[in-house]
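Q: Entry one of two.
A:
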Amino acid sequence: MRTTLEIKDALMRTIYAKAREEHHSVKEVVNELLEYGLHRVSGKKDPWECPTYDLGGIQFDYSKAWELVDAMEAEAVAEKLELRK
């Protein structure tokens, strides 16, 4: 639907900047901002929430990562040498 609005210059500059940053059209940014604002005023939650997952505790001591890399490389070289026999 088309309509005409008078938007303050400073606000319009902000909208243009946001559109440039997000690589969206001004129309998309205005619609997104209006939708967001209306949901906040009405008290509705945003339709999408980022899911979170428990990945467990620390399973590896990263302070000794290079030692593990060296050991794995040495193991791979030994396997290659063994295959050449």
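Q: Entry two of two.
A:
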Amino acid sequence: MAEELISMEDMETIFEVTDSLGIHRESVRVELTKEDPGSIQKVADGMVEITLPVNESAEVFCRKLRIDLEAMGYEPADSVLSYDDDDEDDEDTRPASGPKPRLS
């Protein structure tokens, strides 16, 4: 039996949960292959290690992921992103540059 790999959609589903709990994405390790029954653990270096199960959808598993992470002490974050996502607005307040000098 060939190993089943996780998809980008699986990763997005995992990150929806971990982002909402304020867990930095660089603190999350996800096994690239699925393995039953799946697992969630916090290891000594503070990383959260996740293995998705083969016989359960990522959406169903991530309901358990949220419950287990909250049981580990993670709480919903005030801000999902650790950076200011209003950076685009800053561009609107920049002064317009003057005419470019002509090169002869």
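A: Comment on entry two: The first strand starts at residue 28 and ends at 30. Confidence is low (pLDDT under 50) at residues 82-101.
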